[in-house]
Amino acid sequence: MPELAADDLIHRTLAGERVPLARALSWVENEHPGATALLDACFGRTGRAHRLGITGPPGAGKSTLVTQLAKEYRARGETVAVVAVDPTSPFSGGALLGDRVRMNELSGDEGIFIRSMATRGSMGGLAVHTAQACDVLDAAGFGRILIETVGVGQSELEVAQTADTTAVVLVPESGDAVQAMKAGIMEIADVFAVNKADREGADRAAQAIRSALHLRARTSEWDIPVQLTVASQGEGVRELVDHFERHLAWLADSGTLERRRRRRLEQQLETLMRERLWEEFRARVSARRWDEAVAALGERRETPNQVATRLTEADGSE
Ligand SMILES: Nc1nc2c(ncn2[C@@H]2O[C@H](COP(=O)(O)OP(=O)(O)OP(=O)(O)O)[C@@H](O)[C@H]2O)c(=O)[nH]1
Ligand SMILES: [Mg+2]
């Protein structure tokens, strides 16, 4: 596609045209200068999509499940965007190719849009870019946004937290259930899927998760369901979507949706303010002064606290 004027690109993205939409998402991902105007134009139209995080350990069957979920939502008349967050790890090269093949099943349907986000740059950046990509997809009119993230680390938690509903996908045989609980995933799961339930031990794994949930102090009125699935056969997928829809209704009725979204916006604002204030500061303080401050630390003449105080209290005049 030839270079589009920014206004044209924004207009066509909001109209749901796929090629401009793909370009718009690249703008977000690459922090293109036009991204700010794009996101500003999208903002007033966001808040309509249900954002679902699908997370869990490598190979649990997330992509297979996402493909099935997308089909089920389509059958229910919803439009679906999939955001697959690829960690650029040496292990995921093959898996990514697998994803493409699997998700090819979905291609050719105008009501489905699939996008990968690379984990370039900082992890914090990834969460921000993912949230912004979801804003664009939301504004473009997709009703359900499925965000697939691999793993159970801090960065995945951050990405998952950009969702309204988070599903944690585990498998029967590994000690994943226990590990996930340790990694804090228990705190973010709204729904559990025990996938590969065609294998030994799925009921036992589901039971282990339920017991762990019972031991935990309840923090809300939402009863976290544990659903067995066989993603490769599409089993349990309808039930899973039912849980998601019930969760969405619960979020809305209880006021939790509004609260979560507001907190998300507050976090966005905070991130933005941090960046801006930092840039402002670096523009104000010369490289020479900064280097001197670092040298003072290196030579143990001042403590980091003292230097920070001196630099913030200075009025900027050199
Ligand atoms: N037996 C069985 N295999 C499954 C099931 N669901 C997925 N698989 C297989 O598990 C493998 C991994 O599936 P993916 O969907 O790529 O898993 P993933 O969690 O997206 O993997 P990463 O993105 O690499 O973390 C594939 O070979 C799938 O065919 C299932 O319910 N039962
Ligand atoms: Mg995958």
The name of the CATH architecture of the largest domain is: 3-Layer(aba) Sandwich
Q: Helices and strands, in N-to-C order?
A: HHHEHEHEHEHEHHEHEHHHH
Mean pLDDT: 86
| Rounded Rg | 22 Å
Oligomer: single chain
Low-confidence stretches: 88-98
Number of domains: 3
| Net shape | globular
- Bin the strand percentage: 5-15%
**CATH level 4 superfamily of the largest domain:** P-loop containing nucleotide triphosphate hydrolases
CATH topology of the largest domain: Rossmann fold
**Tally of separate helices:** 14
Biggest pleated sheet = 7 strands, parallel
The tally of beta strands, per DSSP, is 7
Secondary-structure-derived class:
alpha/beta
Helix content: 55-70%
| Hetero groups | guanosine-5'-triphosphate, magnesium ion
- CATH class (first level) name of the largest domain: Alpha Beta
Polypeptide structure, described:
The protein is α/β, with parallel strands linked by helices. It has 3 domains: 1-43, no CATH class; 44-254, 3-Layer(aba) Sandwich (Rossmann fold), CATH 3.40.50; 267-313, no CATH class. The chain is 55% helix and 13% strand. It contains 14 helices and 7 strands. It has a 7-stranded parallel sheet, with helices on both faces. Strand 2, helix 5 (92-103) and strand 3 (112-118) form a beta-alpha-beta unit. Helix 4 crosses helix 11 and helix 6 packs parallel to helix 7 (154-160). The longest helix is centred in the C-terminal third of the chain and has 29 residues, at 256-284. Mean pLDDT is 86; it is low at 88-98. It binds guanosine-5'-triphosphate and magnesium ion. Magnesium ion is lined by residues 62-63, 95, 99, 148.
